[in-house]
UniProtKB/TrEMBL annotation:
<comment type="similarity">
    <text>Belongs to the recoverin family.</text>
</comment>
<protein>
    <submittedName>
        <fullName>EF-hand</fullName>
    </submittedName>
</protein>
<dbReference type="GO" id="GO:0005509">
    <property type="term" value="F:calcium ion binding"/>
</dbReference>
<keyword id="KW-0479">Metal-binding</keyword>
<dbReference type="InterPro" id="IPR028846">
    <property type="entry name" value="Recoverin"/>
</dbReference>
<keyword id="KW-0677">Repeat</keyword>
<keyword id="KW-0519">Myristate</keyword>
<keyword id="KW-0106">Calcium</keyword>
<keyword id="KW-0449">Lipoprotein</keyword>
<dbReference type="InterPro" id="IPR011992">
    <property type="entry name" value="EF-hand-dom_pair"/>
</dbReference>
<dbReference type="InterPro" id="IPR018247">
    <property type="entry name" value="EF_Hand_1_Ca_BS"/>
</dbReference>
<feature type="domain" description="EF-hand">
    <location>
        <begin position="95"/>
        <end position="130"/>
    </location>
</feature>
<dbReference type="Pfam" id="PF13833">
    <property type="entry name" value="EF-hand_8"/>
</dbReference>
<dbReference type="InterPro" id="IPR002048">
    <property type="entry name" value="EF_hand_dom"/>
</dbReference>
Length: 187
């Protein structure tokens, strides 16, 4: 792919003004920043992985990046474009049901409308791998199994699944806020 235009069109800016809560000035700034970092017009999975290695040098972020890339690539075309980036950024800065839905999709890898124990385990494991052994040892629930069991038991159900409704309750749970704070730092 060749170099993409580094100035956003007025039509695209208008589209993002409607789709996001950003101002025109903010959209122009994010666009300029995005294309300065990604002159090809997209972020590859390898680029994202390298960014995460820079932030988490003591861990292995590969599995987390696989999950994150899939969640951020909103149109599932195999690349993170400016459209994907700005919409995800907008959702992440909000405190809304839309943000809860997006985070839920982050966990719900198979898109079946529930988070099963395997998905939750894989997600927590990906985060723990990314953080690295030393960082994980300092956490209250310092094994994947402990963290998953804490999350599931906090729902007071006998199920090994989390519905979207359960997830909304879970987000407000103090034991889960530590995990969500980590996620927020990463996206």
């Amino acid at each position: 792919m060749g170099k993409v235009n580094s100035k956003i069109s007025s039509e695209d800016c208008a589209k993002f003004l409607k789709k996001t809560s950003f101002t025109k000035k903010e959209i122009y700034q994010w666009y300029k920043c995005f294309y300065k970092s990604c002159p090809e017009g997209f972020i590859s999975k390898e680029q994202l992985l390298n960014m995460y290695y820079g932030v988490f040098p003591c861990g292995n972020p590969r599995n987390f990046v696989d999950i994150a890339y899939k969640a951020i690539d909103l149109n599932n075309d195999g690349s993170i474009t400016f459209d994907d980036f700005i919409i995800t950024l907008d959702v992440c800065k909000r405190n809304s049901n839309e943000k809860i839905d997006w985070i839920f999709r982050f966990f719900d890898v198979d898109n079946d409308g529930i988070i099963n124990k395997k998905e939750l385990t894989n997600f927590v494991d990906a985060i723990y791998q990314m953080l690295g052994k030393k960082e994980v040892e300092s956490l209250l629930d310092n094994t994947v199994e402990k963290r998953v069991n804490t999350i599931l038991s906090s729902l007071n159900t006998n199920k090994d699944i989390i519905t979207k409704e359960d997830f909304g309750k879970l987000i407000n749970n103090n034991q889960t806020k530590e995990l969500l704070a980590i996620i927020k730092l990463m996206i």
